[in-house]
Amino acid sequence: MKNTSHHILFILVLFCTQLYSQNTENNDTFENKMDNYKEKVKVQWRYNPLRIYETDKYFSSWLDPDNYNSSFWFGDILNIESLYPNKNFDLANLILYFSPKLAVDLAPIAFNVDGDKHRFKIGVGYSLKLFFGSYKAGKDQLYGTTFLFSTYMQVEAYFEYIFNNKLKVRFAPLRHICAHIGGDILGDETLYDKNKEEFRDEGFEQMHLSAAYRWGWFSFYGGTSFAITGFKKSNIVNLFNVYSGIDIRFPIWGEMNLITGVYVGAFLDEINTIIRNKKGDGYPAADSHNEWTPSISTGIGFEIYRFTIGIKYEYARSKQLYAYRKMESRIGLETSLFF
């Protein structure tokens, strides 16, 4: 029995020696064959739930107000007095406005066909934007050193197709948009008397279709949306919009580009005056009318890898819920992150 064990052990050692030593010059060992097959299978389907920087950044314009890029903007709202005419807001003591935006674009289902020639995604885009003002030193109110004006949220479920990393088509059968007055306003009856003033609430759903095309240093994009729910229930419902834009990237050095462009859009909104009733009685619209408004965004900056920093100017209907009936003009410095 002991001799048999020795024989078996000798045969195993000899077999392993043959596997790991034969044909090493032509890289044809059994171990390498297993590793090579594993790599071959892996490249057949490269799963990545996030966007790919090298290609997908051309399909998400930094000038598009509705993009899913996290960012931080600070600067000046040029017509802030007309947005908040109530003198109790004490805007003279505010020296700076800033808006952080937390955004993500995830595709739990993502696969490629024929290498990178055909890419398919099913995912979700989400963004939350906050609107703040910062007080002068020693001039802060009971709210603290900053004042929260409003919050704005957008989330959509989408289907996406990318051809040859040049053309992207995206369809979102459901996009939800909602906005809320900042807690600093609701907590101060001198700023907003909910028993006397119009009830302010924004929440509706849309369908959205967009396309983007990359050609050299230029990225062209455009799209359209239309409302599917929320009529006569929300202070503002974007019934329809159409927009287009262009980004131009001029290579400077390495991953650094000079980036500029312009975004233009036309928006048809339903403006409702909502009556506040007792709990359970609902919030009917006392008045309703439609308005067309423009949306313009332009800027210039530097793109370094996944980061973009630049000066932006925007003119559009205010996304701050308290001022939803007004057009807002703002200019400032923005840093954004693409991932």
Task: Characterize the structure shown.
This protein is mostly beta strands and 339 residues long. 13% of the residues lie in helices and 54% in strands. It has 5 helices and 12 strands. The chain has a 12-stranded antiparallel barrel. Strand 7 and strand 8 form a beta hairpin. The radius of gyration is 28 Å and the shape is elongated.
Short characterization:
This protein has 339 residues and is mainly beta.
From the structure above, extract its key features.
339 residues; mainly beta; twelve-stranded antiparallel beta barrel; 5 helices
What topology does this entry show?
Elements: H1 2-21, H2 30-42, H3 53-56, E1 70-77, H4 80-83, E2 94-113, E3 118-135, E4 146-163, E5 167-181, H5 183-186, E6 202-215, E7 218-229, E8 236-253, E9 256-274, E10 285-304, E11 307-317, E12 327-337
Antiparallel strand pairs: 1-2, 1-12, 2-3, 3-4, 4-5, 5-6, 6-7, 7-8, 8-9, 9-10, 10-11, 11-12
- What fraction of residues sit in β-strands? over 45%
Sheet with the most strands: spatial strand order: 1-2-3-4-5-6-7-8-9-10-11-12
- State the assembly state of the protein chains: single chain
Number of helices: 5
User: What is the number of strand segments?
Assistant: 12
Radius of gyration: 28 Å
Supply the helix-strand structural class.
mainly beta
Mean pLDDT: 90
Series of secondary-structure elements, N-terminal to C-terminal:
HHHEHEEEEHEEEEEEE
Strand count, sense and closure of the main sheet? 12 strands, antiparallel, barrel
Q: How far is it from the N-terminal to the C-terminal residue, by CA?
A: 64 Å
**Low-pLDDT stretches:** none
| Shape call | elongated
How much helical structure, as a percent, in the residues?
Answer: 10-25%
